[in-house]
Write a structure and sequence with these properties.
- The chain contains no helices and eleven strands.
- It has strands at residues 2-7, 10-13, 18-26, 33-39, 46-52, 58-60, 68-72, 78-83, 92-99, 117-118, 122-127.
- The N and C termini lie far apart (40 Å).
- The mean pLDDT is 93.
């Protein structure tokens, strides 16, 4: 079991930066990958960024690549999402996710189905 708690959300203006943090506890040594997803009102949950601990592969949504950066500590107890040049369309609830499963097809980590553990979410609102 892995427990995840997000923090760092808030209200910012267009062009601002924000760092989201995800604190993991429990059997974190079994974590194979962690990711950030977001869900805006009336929309489906979508990938923002994900990273695998073995191999260090990273995946980004095309809309955030070059503006957002995912990172984590070697102890697998924390994960971060640095968001720069924020836009109103980035407004959503952001969720931290983790999985203990190693998938042969790395691209599967870009889907929410790959993750078994989820945080409660943190709201990010970007005003224009």
């Amino acid at each position: 079991q892995v427990r995840l708690v997000e923090s760092g959300g808030g209200l910012v203006q267009t062009g601002d930066s924000l760092r989201l943090s995800c604190a993991a506890s429990g059997r974190t040594f079994t974590t194979a990958a962690m990711g950030w997803f977001r869900q805006a009102p009336g929309k489906e949950r979508e990938l923002v960024a994900a990273t695998t601990w073995s191999g260090g592969s990273t995946y980004y949504a095309a809309s955030v690549k070059d503006r957002f950066t995912i990172s984590g500590d070697n102890g697998k107890s924390a994960d971060y999402l640095d968001m720069n040049s924020l836009r109103p369309e980035n407004t959503a609830v952001y969720y931290c996710a983790a999985t203990t499963l190693n998938y042969k097809i790395g691209a599967y980590y870009q889907t929410s189905r790959a993750y078994s553990f989820w945080g409660q979410g943190t709201q990010v609102t970007v005003s224009s």
